[in-house]
User: Which sequence fits this backbone?
């Protein structure tokens, strides 16, 4: 039995970042960039008006009030090819290029319009007033996004601004999901006595989809070695294969042996944590296999803390668990020896998290109670007693 931190280390050691693929930027949200993006032009590409107003050179105004003639008007997308005379200005709209020899824009609000296309300037303008200068955001050829950048809204917009409609991103892993157990029926099927519904299959598929992965659902397989081997072979060509159930020590927990018969090498089996102790992690060539115990609270915890970490690393992102400190609202005691994850309601009170361990929680099968929780309180393996009002670490989902 190994420690949780050791399991994390062993898993990360096995992760290789996946190859790259071309993705349209509209489809690239949350993807990790596998190339550097340079700007193909100066941004902005010309001196640009930041306001609706009047453009001229600040040197034209020695004293205020001053009067200038409005030569013409330019809108965004247009330009004025002629130079202005010293007595002239140009009406300009936000986003339009400043004509030659102009260097400031006076806002509509700061002038008075006179008859016959004249304006009166009331306040002395300064150089660069309300102007965005050519290349001030970025110069042509400069790298604006580095390899490894996660594409959020701004990054997608930046790619568009510099003419990259498609980018190279790290591939998302192929992740099949298999549920094992003679007792399992799918949620839309009739449950006869002795059977239960398959919670883990849909939960894992949904969690993977949230990460942008299109998982491959392999269904439910019976606890028979022949059937297991057949299904396992189907999943083994993937990047990360998740199998739920059948990894404990019962007579019908046949998954580790079946995996071995399929050529999977065990990296570790069993972790010093509660819940989730029977976790199996193995490898066949570049394919990684997680065998999670069937109780849904264990499956959920192991997915969030370990499997998700592996998947993120493969896609090029590093994931830090949302760990916080909080105050426990009741005494808590446990047997030492395993790191314990206790489902809890976690509230913000002031700037501190307050932890309410679920009162009615019947253990790792109790997925019903888990819906009341927001996270897990984490109790280190050495601790036997946590006093009310003491501080504990929480993992927020
Ligand atoms: P196992 O890990 O196969 O020993 O299963 C442990 C417990 O989890 C048993 O009570 C199973 O019935 C239950 N279980 C196994 N697989 C699932 C599943 N996919 N959904 C809900 N419960 C499950
Ligand atoms: Mg089972």
Assistant:
């Amino acid at each position: 039995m190994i420690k949780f931190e050791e399991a994390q280390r062993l898993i990360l050691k096995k992760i290789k970042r996946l190859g790259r693929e071309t993705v349209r930027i509209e489809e690239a949200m949350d993807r990790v960039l596998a190339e550097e993006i340079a700007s193909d032009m100066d941004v902005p590409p010309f001196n640009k008006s930041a306001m609706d107003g009047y453009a001229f050179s600040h040197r034209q105004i020695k004293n205020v009030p001053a009067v200038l003639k409005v030569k013409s008007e330019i809108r965004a997308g247009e330009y004025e090819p002629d130079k202005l005379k010293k007595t002239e200005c140009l009406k300009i709209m936000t986003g339009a290029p400043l004509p030659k020899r102009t260097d400031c824009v006076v806002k509509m609000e700061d002038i008075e319009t006179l008859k016959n296309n004249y304006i009166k300037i009331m306040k002395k303008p300064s150089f660069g007033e309300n102007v965005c200068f050519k290349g001030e955001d970025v110069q042509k050829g400069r790298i604006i996004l580095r390899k490894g950048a996660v594409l959020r809204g701004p990054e997608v917009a930046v790619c568009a601004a510099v003419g990259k409609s498609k980018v190279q991103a790290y591939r998302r892993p192929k992740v099949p999901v298999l549920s094992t157990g003679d007792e399992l029926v799918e949620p839309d099927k009739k449950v006869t006595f002795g059977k239960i519904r398959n919670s883990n299959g849909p939960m894992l598929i949904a969690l993977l989809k949230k990460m942008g992965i299109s998982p491959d659902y392999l269904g439910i397989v019976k606890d028979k070695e022949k059937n297991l081997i057949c299904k396992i072979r189907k999943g083994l060509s993937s990047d990360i294969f998740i199998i739920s159930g059948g990894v404990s020590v019962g007579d019908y927990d046949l998954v580790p042996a079946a995996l071995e018969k399929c050529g999977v090498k065990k990296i570790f089996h069993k972790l010093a944590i509660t819940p989730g102790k029977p976790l199996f992690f193995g490898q066949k060539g570049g394919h990684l296999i997680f065998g999670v115990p069937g109780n849904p609270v264990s499956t959920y915890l192991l997915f969030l803390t370990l499997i998700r970490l592996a998947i993120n690393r493969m896609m090029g992102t590093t994931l830090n668990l949302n760990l916080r400190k909080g105050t426990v609202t009741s005494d808590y005691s446990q047997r030492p020896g395993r790191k314990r994850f206790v489902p809890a309601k976690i509230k913000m009170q002031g700037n501190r998290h307050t932890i309410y361990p679920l009162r009615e929680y019947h253990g790792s099968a109790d997925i019903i109670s888990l819906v009341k929780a927001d996270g897990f309180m984490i109790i280190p393996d050495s601790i036997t007693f946590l006093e009310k009002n003491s501080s504990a670490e929480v993992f927020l989902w």
